[in-house]
Amino acid sequence: MPYDPTSLSNLDEVKTTHIHLDLAVDFAAKTLTGSAELDVEAIADNVSKVVLDTSFIDIRSVSVDGQALKHTLEKRHEKYGSALTIELGHSLSKGHTAKLVIGYATTEECTACQWLEPSQTVGKKHPYLFTQCQAIHARSLVPCQDSPSIKLTYSANITAPLRAVMSAVATGEEKQANGATTYKFQQKTRMPSYLIALAVGNLEGREIGPRSTVWTEPEVIEAAAWEFVDTEKFIRTGEEFLTPYDWGRYDLLVLPASFPYGGMENPCLTFVTPSLLAGDRSLVDVVAHEIAHSWMGNLVTTENWEHFWLNEGFTVFVERKILGHMQGKEHSEFSAIIGHKALVESVDLYGKDHPFTALRPCLRGEDPDDAFSSVPYEKGFNMLYYLEKQLGGEKVFDPYVRAHVQEFAGRSINTDDWKAFLYSFMEKHHGQEKVDILNKVDWEAWLSGTGMPPVENKFDDTLAKECNCLCKKWDQSRHEAKPQEFTPQDLENFSSTQRVVFLERVSELAPLPHSHLDLMDELYNLTTVRNCEIKFRWQMICLAADYEKIYPEVAAFASTMGRMKFCRPLLRSLYLAKNGSELARNTFLKHKSFYHPIAATMIAKDLGLSNVNVHSEMEPSHVFAAQLLDALPEPEMAEIQRRQSDMSVSIQKASASLSALNEFSAAKWAVLHPKFEAHTRAIKELQADLDYVFRRIRAMKTKLNLPNLDDDDEEEEE
Ligand SMILES: [Zn+2]
Questions:
Q1: What distance in Å separates the CA atoms of residue 528 and residue 587, rounded to the nearest whole number?
Q2: In this predicted structure, which of 53-62, 83-92, 237-246, 622-631 has the lowest mean pLDDT?
Q3: Under a CB-based contact definition with an 8 Å cutoff, are residues 592 and 567 in contact?
Q4: Binding site members for Zn(2+)
Q5: Domain 462-595 falls under CATH 1.25.40.320
Q6: Which tens digit of pLDDT belongs to each residue from 369-383?
Q7: What is the domain class of 301-447 according to CATH?
Q8: Which residues belong to the annotated binding site?
């Protein structure tokens, strides 16, 4: 019986086998309206109700065979949404089925849907819609059993004024009288609800392989087709390593630059950020990762989000196998070293005792998005890598990984299922000797222990050594007026990943003199590089050194790249850099409509502009504060406003420096320390200001006889 703490559905009584969606896209209203047909099957006797997950969905009708059914939308659970309880009117016995038809519309609060304005697209002429359902947002796109333990097929008719694409195979299109077109889709391979995906926009497709088309806006189609030309090679390498590709098509959708994330493995149609268009095919290992998901995650799926490592750890393991086959072993080992660093950073960020640093965390009552980090990816990879080494290397482990896919394809599994099969495979094919090895593994520490893995793997560091060496040379040259030992050839034989690692190492040093940065740029052409990963690290190094020449470049990059990995740290660092704060704020304010609302909200906070109207309406507490200020006598108000502005400056500086601290490694402490101390003082002053304002507000409330909006807080304070 499936267990999923993050779904409100009665998973122990029914399962959904197919969903058919019939939806119309309305860009003006920012809604999807229509119906979902769910084929449900009883997996127990006497099933009289079906409970579905929903979140901010407007349910309009529920019926079966044209007969309306009694249904209730339960009170909203803060993290898991509102359960929709449907009374079937009669009992289903085990194995019996019903076809539920639910009329509904999405609302502006549905977190799965991101509606972009034309200004957020490359072409700037047409609006754009895309969805992101992982981890538990599918329930805000369609009422469903939103648990990865449920695997279903789906089909859809999407009526839209612009081209629609989905995580399924397109089966036809039909022009409508009103000028819109109905796009039809079918997904025949059973998959979890979090992989339902839709995008609608001014899209053009270009074939890049026998089963692959890249989709994007016409303005970037050439660049995208060129960048991803090796897609078929990745798929074939995956097939050689595992089993034949099961999904028919493997298309890519390159989203507008305001797409705030890196990539999403939606089946038949991977979603990716345009920041992968490096112009040198150097960042396509993200594509290798998403292709690896075709087997790990999409075909063999975690039963619930507590075993997310089965998706991501295995995917990283296969991604590095593909890389190793295509580029050589030292490249996959190098990738493992970079991954290990990301794991160290995640563990540092949470703290080594934090439950979310365990490979198999408990998520009862938790939002899986909060537990998202490098841990399932890299700790999971490290365990598989360790097991491979212990059990005798590739010749033993490769056949096992293939057998794992064959055994579990089409199913949702948990860590116990995984482990039981590992044991039985090793016993069957290699006998007691391998079982004895498995018995010596400290499973408790690997699976339930927090912090770093119990065993540290040794990776081949050939490629990392060169990066460290070059960085050290620059560090040692810092007191020379004109260092002579560097040439453009230093980086010539470095891969893009090595360049990134070299720059990461430099960023851990105390800032280099400006003359050195001049020289580095002159020799290595870092300012003009197109590769976003390199450009980003170079700009961060310059900002940390208050190197003002780079500021206009930072403003240009951060206002055209909405992937949060890049734009947030850049604007935040520009804001903290000498003479940079105004440019950071102006850049953001000028391009506010370009950013995704999630990104815009975060950046506004980073830059101390939380009062900027990212959403069109004022929050009730702001309205109340405005009324309160209106009611104040002039001098009082001037004083409050003065202190308020002091406060917001302090808050922004403190929060910027705290978030910066979170991201930096200990080596950067020396650089940040003085800034941090200044901000600590600012926080103390802020506390005094806050006390003053609270006292005044309380006094004014009493004087004006205004209602208390936050009684609880006040009682606690007094
Ligand atoms: Zn992944």
A1: 20
A2: 622-631
A3: no
A4: 289, 293, 312
A5: yes
A6: 888 889 999 999 999
A7: mainly alpha
A8: 132-134, 260-265, 289, 293, 312, 563-565
